Amino acid sequence: MFAATAVFCPSDLRGQLDRSGPPTTANPLTRDPALVEAGASLFRQYCTGCHGRGGEGGQGEGQGPNLATSWEVRRAKDQELSGFIKNGVKGTAMPAFPLPDEQIRQLAAFVRSLNAPAASLPIAGDVQAGEATFFGKGQCSSCHMIRGRGGYLGPDLSDVGATRRLGELRNSLTDPSPIPSADYRPVLVTGADGKQLRAVAKHSSYWSAQLLDERGNLHLLHGEDAAKLAFAQESWMSPEFAKRLSPGELNDLVAFLSRQSIRPLEPPKGPPVPKEGAR
Amino acid sequence: MRRQIFLLFSGFVLAFVLDAQVTSEDLLKSPAENWLTYHGDYAGKRFSPLHEINTATVAGLVPKWVRHFTTGSDLEATPLVYEGVMYTTAGNELYALDAVTGREIWHYQSANSQGRGVNRGAAIWGDQVFFTTSDCYLLSFRRTSGAVLWAREFASKADGYSCSGAPFAVKGRILVGVASSGINCFVAALSAEDGKEAWRVWAVPKSGEPGSDTWGQFPLREGGGPMWTVGTYDPDLNLIYLPTGNPWPDFHGADRPGDNLYTDCILAVDADTGKMKWYFQFVPHDTHDWDANETPILADINFRGQPRKLLLQANRNGFYYVLDRETGEFLTGTPFVKDLTWATGLGAKGRPILRPNSEPSAAGTLTCPSVHGASNWWSPSLNPDLGLMYVVTLEQCELYYSSSQKAVANSGFRGTGHNIINARPGQFYLRALDSTTGNLRWEFPMPGPTTMWAGTVATAGNLVFSADDDGDLAAFDAKTGKPLWHFFTGSNLHASPMTFGVNGHQYVTIASGTNLITFGLAAKTP
């Protein structure tokens, strides 16, 4: 019966962009697409050897860290970030790059953009059309909630634009992981009325399990009930999801999600970034 | 067909199904198994009717779970518990935990809030749970899933405000308060539905308003009066009792001549409109940072043979006060610390009779209590059956310094400061006071470094649980003060204990350092 219901849970949307530093929506570096573009070109020239082509980090000893998920990068002030590039980082393999200040600024802008929350970037796509898709054809709201509207089986997306990067949003739609994340493991439970309900386990172990069903009710199991739980291997979110939407609808959906922030945001200025996001 | 075949349970028994709405009636019945407000109840008594853990069984109390939080600061929250789910906070973080196992159900961390700060707890209403960020947003969450429903900025960090207190749910509104260093503070009542502000009560009046003539020429906007704890509520009188903090600059009063209303007060305000019905000021023209943010406990007990609606407060200034909470009339007040030098007593209307030369000075003036106060926000509790109030009390004196340096709001300047004398470090005590007189019935000494910020909870098991100054949670015979059980929690205590029940079994929880620890009876709990 559940197989007939189209649901999706972008499991990699669970995490937050960063929990230790405030993603700024008004960074002058990331708000200048030309600066970011110039930085991307310099990055390919100087940085990819250690940090990977997209700043995702190199493999093996002596390679550079992932700059796109680095809390040190997010937390660093622009001046500090520029300092890391220009002067290197003591005690690490990161050398100094004695480039002209303008090029340092361009590189910093690119590295910053890798970490920028989606909500801070201008984006192509029709936000209103994306909203219609979210609550309509896309059936996203059957599992996901935005400001109290929607379902319970997937992560709440009310703040997803402020906490995730643009590329992550897009990837989570076009390439969702079939493997459910640890706190969204799918399971079936029996409701108070005897009806079978889809649910996710927020935590489970031999000793206890905490389940949230599709109606938003919690089931707290202790002892034997928890030990008897059985899970599905695949997420409630179908990896086939994106195929039901046209590229335009997908783009609009990303645009809508990118604007979701529980705090008011200054609207981004400047021309939209390319579809692939800031990279 | 990509879906796996799911194994279903036969005879699957649900331990819990939670879909109820938390109502005013639920809040009025708390605490029982549920603990639904910061103090457990609306009256601030922190008295639980649970008695599975009692004087006979407490020796079997053992830790059931410990949860570590990766927060930067020591935890200060008193958790809430509703139908087996515990809601607790750290700075800019809110957690829903399975109260029996400590396992996480959901967790929210504000990515936008700058800094960690401290936080003292959550509020619950309907199907929502609320907490404030350090930069003064009130956030609303769906209780079971943690989905964010709305966020409302009720004060600006840029203006110098900060927020740490637990919100307080009254009649569909969520009360939130602010602290500052030199900016007029307030409590606001926001709609639980959408965060819209219904009313706001300021600590310091605006120019031309009653009380504004008690500041000389001092700019009223910079009067201070932090309202960082959110008070108590009497549903019959429909009054909310809001404590206010001290005037600014803390230790230098020459530029603000007068009583500096409504700092260091209890404000009794109408729960629907926020309109003030009465106020009582504990320390007119405070120059020692003795705010009135201690719990104003509401109790209906006989006073001198007559049933009275009372408000009780063990104040930071060292006096225990009994007020009539319908009118604000001062009934009696008595010192609950031995070291009290700044006043010789209280007048007929409760105004302190000042001892000369107690003002902070350039050379330093030795005064008791210290700036921490004889009491503080660490929670007292009241056993109404025994008529005893349990107060963690600090006997301590300090040198208070004052300077006429020009005061600049939000600069951190407080009018100079205070210093402990090394030879007289002071000491904490757990004291049981007669609730209508403030007279000492018993006390238990708590030697230690005088660094704790932790209080008590009393129960119908004839027990009072109290933190001590050396990292222990301890249980005492409520009547006699005899220590019956103690457990070293591993860290300094900056939070008060609470108690709750699940499936008929009682638990006790306290935050210790960056851990939350829950205890239950070894023989009874899973």
List key phrases describing it.
heterodimer, A: 279 residues, alpha+beta, Cytochrome Bc1 Complex, Chain D, domain 2, 4-stranded antiparallel beta sheet, 6 strands, globular, disordered N terminus, disordered C terminus, B: 526 residues, mainly beta, Methanol Dehydrogenase, Chain A, 1 helix, 1% helix, 38% strand
| Widest β-sheet, arrangement of strands of chain A | 3-4-5-6
Number of strands of chain B: 38
Helix and strand succession of chain A? HHHHHHEEHHEEEEHH
Number of strands of chain A: 6
Q: Please, what is the average pLDDT of chain B?
A: 93
Question: How would you characterize this protein structure?
Answer:
The complex is a heterodimer of chains A (279) and B (526). Chain A is 31% helix and 11% strand. Chain A is an alpha+beta fold and 279 residues long. Among the domains of chain A are: 33-116, Cytochrome c-like domain (Cytochrome Bc1 Complex, Chain D, domain 2), CATH 1.10.760; 185-227, no CATH class. In chain A, helix 1 (33-46) packs across helix 5 (101-115), helix 4 crosses helix 5 and helix 8 (166-174) crosses helix 10 (247-258). The radius of gyration of chain A is 21 Å and the shape is globular. The two termini of chain A are 41 Å apart. Chain B is an all-beta fold. In chain B, strands 1-32-33-34-35 form a 5-stranded mixed β-sheet, with no helix packed on it. Chain B is globular and about 60 Å long.
Can you describe this structure in just a few lines?
The complex is a heterodimer of chains A (279) and B (526). With 279 residues, chain A is of the alpha+beta class.
